[in-house]
Amino acid sequence: MKRIAVVLSLVFVMIIPLYAKGELKDFFKSLSNEQKQKLKEMRKQNQTEIKSHASQIKQYMQEMRTALQSNVIDQSKVNGLIDKIGALRIEMQKKRIANQIKMLQVLTPEQKKQFMQIMESKKKEIGSKMRGKRRPRSKKDQDIE
User: What phi and psi, each to the nearest 5 degrees, are found at residue 52?
Assistant: First the structure.
C-alpha cells in the first residue's frame, strides 16, 4: 500500500509541473491575433529598455570591482556607484510594473483573471522549488553560534 502511494505521489509531482508549463502556453494561444500582436510589440519595447539598463548596471558593477581592487579605495566613489546601480534597478522595476499594467489592459476581464491565477500557481511552484535549494549550513557557521 505504501509503495502505491509513493509511486502515485511521484507521478503527481512529475506531471503537475508539466501541466503548469503547458497551461501558460495554452493561455497565450487562446488570445486573439490582435492581442498577441500588441503583447509582442510591448514585450519588444520593454526588452530594449531593460537591456539598456542592465548594460549600464553591468558597467557600474565592473567600475565598482575595479575601484575595490585598487590600492587606495575611494569610499565616496564606491557609494556613488552603489547609488547609481540602485537607481537603475528601481527604474527597471518601475518599467517592468508599468509594462505589466499595459499588458494586463490588453486582456479582457476574464482573461486577466485566468492569467493571474496561472501566474499565482507558477509563483507557488517556483517558491516551493526554491525552499529546498538553500545551502546547507557548514560546520563553521554552526561554530559561530
Answer: -60, -45
Q: Of 124, 33, 98, whose CA–CA distance to 116 is shortest?
A: 124
Phi-psi region of 31 (alpha: psi -120 to 50; beta: other; left: phi over 0): beta
Q: Do the Cβ atoms of 49 and 95 come closer than 8 Å?
A: yes
CA angle 36, 37, 41 (to 5 degrees): 115
Closest CA to 122 of 29, 21, 10, 25: 21
Q: Selecting from 3.40.630.30, 1.10.220.10, 1.10.10.10, 1.20.120.1490, what CATH number does the domain 32-106 have?
A: 1.20.120.1490
Mean of the pLDDT values across residues 82-90?
95
For 24, other C-beta atoms within 10 Å of its C-beta total: 14
Q: Rounded to 5 degrees, what are φ and ψ at 71?
A: -65, -40
How far apart CA 124 and CA 73 sit, in angstroms, is: 43
Positive or negative, the Cα torsion across 109, 110, 116, 119?
negative
Give residue 42's identity as a one-letter amino acid code. Answer: M
Residue 17, pLDDT > 50, answer no
Rounded to two decimals, the pTM is 0.61
